[in-house]
Amino acid sequence: MWACYQEQLVEFRGRQLHDPGAYPEPPLSGKITWRITQPWSEPASEQEREALAQARQLLDTLKKRGQHS
Hints:
alpha+beta
């Protein structure tokens, strides 16, 4: 990995590497947070996440129907 810190080209595993310096565009910034207060209740797999999303969508649909009654 030291090759990536070099300003001059350095051969590393058949490739020429160097550090081109700072990216010329403005930085992306923002805050990404997700507080998990009950980690045991989080879905353990993508399949569980999809099932949970479908259940939430169904609940939302049922709530909307109940508001129109």
